[in-house]
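User: Here's a structure from my thesis project, written as structure tokens. My advisor, Dr. K., wants to see whether a designed sequence matches the one we expressed. Can you design one independently, without my sequence as a hint?
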């Protein structure tokens, strides 16, 4: 079925970050192919936020404020519930879209046919807008490609934002898991792809703003030590989905044996913050992983003797060496 611009809504989600919101909304309104735009506020603490948006954008933007806070994935479900069109793209308040996002999605639909999810490349910048090329994903081998469930079982190719999905499909699959702490979008995108197919373009369609402060949810997840545990849980869910749909994939035991080693740099940066539970979990991941080089193997051997306390101590020493007082 051909995709039309009047069937698309871009929903800008916000909780409290007014300083970036104007650019985000302007990027949605400034598409070369115009679409509906709405702002969905997750009952934030800024009492004047709605008045600010209405003063800046008037009737060009619909505004909805949730009566209670639902969290990031709950707010995304609010976007689904409030969406008046067949197709929806969700945009964070601190990210922004390239002007050709909608036009690129329309072209991808023309090339790939009817799919449940379309998405493109996202570039990463710091808070000031300077590029962070080390975070960018490698280019695709073709201008565009179909995406199937086996390709998203263990690695998430979805840079946020820059997705366009069919609302009815998301609703039928239960929407976003509101209790998710890390992989809520990966879970739903995998389900949509498994049931309705997906397609990706190599064109850059959006910009993700990377924040280094501890107030960002991603930073808190790194610091907690839960990141790799939650990623592993999502891989298991994806494998279970593949089994239910009889999609060929490796077994759970094969996946466990093939899991890559936990990155040593991650432990050196963040282990000093881990709770005792996740310090033990990540130390075991380290000790059981396949060493990619001799340095990793040496660190494994040392931590088998010193255990989790040594992993935390190494992280503290690493910080002092890199950032001496």
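Assistant: Designed independently from the structure alone:
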């Amino acid at each position: 079925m051909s995709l039309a611009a009047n069937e698309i809504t871009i929903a800008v989600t916000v909780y409290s970050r007014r300083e970036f919101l104007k650019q985000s909304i302007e990027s949605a309104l400034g598409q070369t192919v115009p679409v509906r735009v709405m702002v969905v506020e997750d009952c934030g603490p800024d009492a004047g936020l709605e008045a600010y948006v209405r003063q800046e954008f008037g009737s060009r933007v619909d505004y909805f404020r949730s009566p209670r806070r639902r969290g990031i994935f709950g707010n995304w479900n609010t976007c689904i519930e409030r969406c008046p069109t067949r197709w929806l793209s969700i945009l964070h308040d601190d990210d922004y879209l390239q002007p050709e996002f909608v036009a690129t999605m329309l072209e991808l639909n023309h090339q790939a046919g009817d799919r449940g999810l379309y998405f493109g490349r996202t570039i990463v910048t710091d808070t000031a807008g300077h590029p962070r090329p080390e975070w960018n994903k490698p280019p695709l081998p073709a201008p565009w490609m179909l995406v199937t469930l086996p390709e998203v079982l263990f690695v998430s190719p979805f840079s946020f934002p820059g997705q366009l999905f069919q609302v009815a499909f998301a609703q039928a699959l239960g929407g976003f898991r509101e209790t998710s702490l890390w992989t809520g979008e990966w879970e739903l995108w995998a389900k949509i792809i498994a049931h309705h197919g997906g397609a990706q373009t190599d064109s850059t369609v959006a910009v993700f703003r990377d924040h280094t402060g501890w107030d960002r949810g991603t930073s808190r997840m790194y610091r907690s030590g839960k990141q790799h545990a939650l990623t592993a849980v999502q891989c298991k869910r994806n494998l279970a989905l593949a089994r239910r749909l009889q999609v060929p994939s490796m077994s759970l035991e094969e996946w466990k044996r093939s899991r890559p080693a936990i990155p040593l740099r991650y432990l050196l940066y963040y282990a000093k913050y881990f709770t005792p539970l996740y310090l033990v979990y990540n130390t075991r991941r380290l000790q059981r992983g396949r060493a990619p080089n001799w340095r990793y193997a040496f660190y494994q051997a040392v931590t088998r003797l010193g255990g989790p306390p040594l992993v935390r101590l190494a992280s503290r020493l690493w910080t002092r060496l890199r950032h001496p007082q």
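When you compare it with your expressed construct, this may help: The first helix runs from residue 18 to 29.
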